[in-house]
Design a protein that fits this description.
This protein is α/β, with parallel strands linked by helices. The protein has 19 helices and 32 strands. A five-stranded mixed barrel has the order 13-14-15-17-16. Strands 18-19-20-22-21 form a five-stranded mixed β-barrel. Strand 21 and strand 22 form a beta hairpin. Helix 4 runs parallel beside helix 5 and helix 8 runs parallel beside helix 9. The longest helix is centred in the C-terminal third of the chain and has 19 residues. 33% of the residues are buried. The structure holds FE3-S4 cluster (F3S). FE3-S4 cluster binds next to helix 1 and helix 4.
């Protein structure tokens, strides 16, 4: 069986499609409708609308009191709106949003004192509408020659800043020539690219489809230049047929084909495309298709209905700086404002979606009279995000987020699009600490409470920290053993030692373990916050008590002394104290030896203080080292005797 595929952007462009739907929507209410100019260049559709109660008028003065006036996709100038308001008729504004954007730009820039340059055809209704939002300070140019002439003759005279826009259907090639000839680096000139790419997109979608098809059917008027252009484009890739409607299929001798592609010109209504598609797909008897066709019903049937609160899928058809326009496949034009697109103020719509994307949305407001629907992606994201938050809360998952605000009594951040409040007491900071220090910081938290109805969540950083600590403690006890070394931070000092945080668990270094020298308080050696290399001296797993050692063997003065001195060595020593039986002298830092009173001199000493005083430097001989009791005996006398012996020997 053959596969029939319709090109993504076949037929009406978004703006015309919207306008046609708005007219039929109004006619459904049995209202009389007057369109300001033909709504579309397709006589069949215009006739059908006419039969259902719509007529074409050229000016507001022709309006009858009970008629609803429809402004077509080309848009109109400000004056026309005023005239309609004065008449008091109901109005449906089907101005294409791309055209409305140009109106907004020129009106704003005019108010700011700019002169407006418009690239386009001055007789085209769209350009006349744009001009109608400009006051008198504007000029229309049709090509690069007229633009250059403006810069040569007019620009200096007007003495105003310039804002340049283009008709939505302006030729892209000519537009780029114009951009290139505009004086560069002139900060008084701003250019807005306002060209709509609907025609270009229709052609490239058709070419793409033709490349993968055996035959292509191009549906549209014989004299429609954009349909003929589509025919030319498709013919490059496969056998292509140009038909005006499904009736003409009867007269075609189509070859057996597996892949049939269909595209259509800008004025071909959706129902004609659908008709061609279904006839091709179902291979129905074309001879029996003479019944009268109801345009409105055909269009209506192809549309879904939408309701506020409903979740819908939509295709992005346009993205500008403030909103996204979507095709809902309904009579409505869908709008998603930037606020409803994301909660991230740093993002633009184009950072989030692109033309052609299919996205999930929630309908937040439907306006049948205007044929518009406001939608929200943010609500969909929030719902999906909230489900993730609920799951994370149930499973105790640790989440990450950047702290966004400091609020009353806490901080807030966003996770999965949901606002999470973390009370100050659960931030993990000490009571009274400045919460601002967490701003813009990435934190780990757990969700501890969710309020389903209000889509709110409460988080705790402290819970994560406590869990980490518990994990670290469990791991510590698993591996802890006497002799194991750790790097820890001094948390507090007391008179008997220093408490050291080993990563969730504290151990104590006794004062005697802090230094080889005798000290009066741990603060002589360490301060709170210092990082220490410690080792476990004793471990009481039952009582969770850990005694730590800090002194290193290589720093032990006794070890240093033994590596430098032995019995018989001589040294310079400093007297540190005197007693009745002798004097203590320091050999190296932390090591004292005793010079017994009998070892001070070769002569008898009655009173130590008569010979030695504290601070005095003396030469000594090491006469004994008692390793067990760490006692050292020194002698000054031994040195004096050695000297005497040497003198005697020299004399012999
Ligand atoms: Fe159509 Fe609007 Fe573009 S009317 S061609 S979608 S500007």
């Amino acid at each position: 069986m053959s596969k029939v595929t319709v090109a993504k952007s076949a037929g009406f462009c978004f703006g015309v499609d919207r306008a046609v739907k708005m007219v039929y929507g109004e006619l459904e209410n049995n209202t009389r409708v007057a369109t300001l100019g033909p709504i579309i260049h397709n006589q069949d559709v215009v006739n059908d609308m006419n039969e259902k109660g719509a007529r074409i008028i050229e000016s507001v003065s022709e309006l009858e009191p009970d008629e609803t006036v429809v402004i077509r996709s080309h848009g109109v100038g400000r004056k026309i709106y005023e005239e309609i308001a004065e008449k008091g008729n109901k109005m449906l504004d089907a101005t294409c949003p791309f055209v409305a954007r140009i109106h907004k730009i020129v009106a704003e820039k005019t108010a700011e004192g700019y002169f407006i340059l418009i690239a386009g055809d001055k007789n085209h209704p769209e350009v006349q509408g744009i001009v109608g939002h400009c006051d008198e300070n504007y000029q229309v140019f049709k090509d690069v020659f007229e633009l250059n002439a403006f810069f040569e003759k007019e620009y200096k005279k007007i003495k105003k800043k310039l804002a340049i826009v283009a008709q939505t259907t302006y030729n892209i090639v000519v537009w780029s020539e114009c951009i290139n000839s505009i004086p560069k680096d002139d900060e008084n000139i701003v250019i807005f690219d306002t060209i709509c790419n609907a025609t270009e997109a229709r052609q490239s979608d058709a070419a793409e489809l033709a490349k993968g098809s055996d035959i292509m059917l191009v549906v549209g008027g014989r004299h429609s230049s954009n349909t003929v252009k589509l025919y030319e484009v498709c013919s490059r890739y496969c056998k292509t047929y140009h038909i005006e409607n499904s009736e003409e299929l009867k007269h075609l001798q189509l070859p057996e084909s597996e892949r049939i592609g269909i595209t259509a010109g800008a004025s071909t209504p959706a129902y004609i495309i659908k008709e061609v598609e279904s006839k091709m797909a179902e291979n129905i008897n074309l001879a029996n298709q003479d019944e009268e066709f109801d345009f409105a019903q055909a269009i209506d049937e192809s549309f879904k209905k939408i309701h506020t609160g409903e979740k819908v899928k939509a295709t992005v058809v346009a993205v500008n700086n403030t909103e996204v326009i979507v095709d809902l496949g309904t009579k409505h034009t869908g709008y998603v404002s930037l606020d409803d697109l994301t909660d991230d103020p740093s993002k633009k719509p184009s950072d989030i979606v692109s033309v052609g994307d299919e996205i999930d949305l929630v309908v937040i407001k439907v306006n049948d009279a205007e044929g518009t629907a406001a939608l929200s992606k943010r609500k969909v994201d929030e719902q999906a995000g909230f489900e993730k938050i609920v799951k994370a809360s149930e499973e105790g998952t640790v989440l990450e987020g950047i702290v966004q605000h400091v609020v009353n009594k806490g901080i807030t951040l966003t996770a999965f699009g949901v606002r999470v409040f973390i009370p100050a007491s659960l931030t993990g900071l000490p009571r009274g600490a400045e919460l601002e220090q967490l701003l813009k910081k990435k934190v780990e938290f757990q969700v501890i409470e969710v309020t389903e109805g209000r889509k709110r969540a409460v988080g705790s950083i402290k819970a994560v920290q406590a869990a980490k600590r518990a994990e670290a403690v469990a791991k510590f006890w698993e591996t802890a053993e006497v002799g194991a070394t750790y790097t820890g931070k001094v948390k507090s000092l007391t008179s008997f030692g220093a408490f050291v945080d080993l990563g969730g668990i504290d151990g104590m270094v006794h004062i005697s373990e802090l230094s080889w020298k005798r000290i009066k308080h741990p603060s002589e050696v360490v301060s709170v916050g210092d990082t220490l290399e410690v080792y476990i001296k004793e471990l009481d797993k039952e009582a969770n008590r850990i005694s730590l050692g800090y002194k290193k063997t290589e720093d032990d003065p006794w070890v240093i002394f033994q590596s430098q001195y032995e019995v018989g060595s001589t040294a310079k020593a400093t007297i540190v104290s005197t007693t009745t039986f002798g004097a203590f002298a320091q050999i190296i830092d932390g090591i004292d030896g005793l010079i017994h009173i009998s070892q001070i001199s070769t002569e008898k000493v009655e009173n130590v203080k008569d010979v030695l005083s504290v601070g005095q430097e003396v030469d000594v001989k090491i006469v004994d080292i008692d390793t067990d009791s760490k006692r050292i005996s020194l002698s000054m006398r031994a040195l004096l005797e050695d000297d005497a012996d040497e003198t005697a020997e020299d004399a012999e």
